[in-house]
């Protein structure tokens, strides 16, 4: 595999795969955290989301989110930075991401 992670194209995003990825509480917390803080490193997301899991477990969760097309990762030096693929998700499944992150955003108001 190349240095850059492989991401599915927008047109191949699958609603069942996206929903399955979001069904896990740790992955849902990761998505909500990314929605709140924006681009962030893997370790910082884990900290900000309050996840107490091993590095390998966190890597697994991040791989599932990336393969489902929910996140995009890029390498910057020794760090891997993650962002939500909001534009792609909104184009394929309008309103889904907002519905998923709304409880997190409502808690901020």
Descriptive keywords:
alpha+beta, single chain, 109 residues, three-stranded antiparallel beta sheet, 6 helices
Structure description:
The chain has 109 residues and is α+β, with helices and mostly antiparallel strands. 57% of the residues lie in helices and 13% in strands. It contains six helices and three strands, in the order H-H-E-H-H-E-E-H-H. The chain has helices spanning 15-22, 25-37, 42-49, 55-68, 86-92, 96-107; strands at residues 40-41, 71-76, 79-84. The protein has a three-stranded antiparallel beta sheet. Helix 1 (15-22) runs antiparallel to helix 4 (55-68), helix 2 (25-37) packs across helix 3 and helix 2 crosses helix 6 (96-107). The chain is globular. It starts with 14 loop residues before the first helix and ends with a helix. 24% of the residues are buried.
Q: What is the number of helical segments per DSSP (H or I, 4+ residues)? A: 6
> Within the largest sheet, what's the order of strands?
1-3-2
Task: List segments where confidence is low: pLDDT < 50 over at least 5 consecutive residues.
Answer: none
Radius of gyration: 13 Å
Q: What percent of residues are in strands?
A: 5-15%
Shape field = globular
């Amino acid at each position: 595999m190349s240095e850059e992670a492989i991401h599915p194209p927008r047109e191949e995003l699958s609603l069942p795969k996206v929903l399955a990825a979001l069904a896990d509480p740790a992955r849902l917390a990761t998505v909500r955290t990314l929605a709140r803080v924006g681009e962030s490193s893997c370790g910082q997301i884990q900290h900000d989301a309050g996840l107490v899991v091993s590095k390998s477990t966190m890597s697994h969760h991040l791989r599932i989110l990336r393969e489902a097309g929910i996140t995009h990762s890029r390498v910057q030096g020794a760090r891997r930075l993650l962002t939500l693929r909001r534009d792609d998700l909104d184009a394929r499944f309008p309103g889904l991401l907002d519905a998923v992150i709304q409880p997190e955003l409502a808690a901020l108001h």
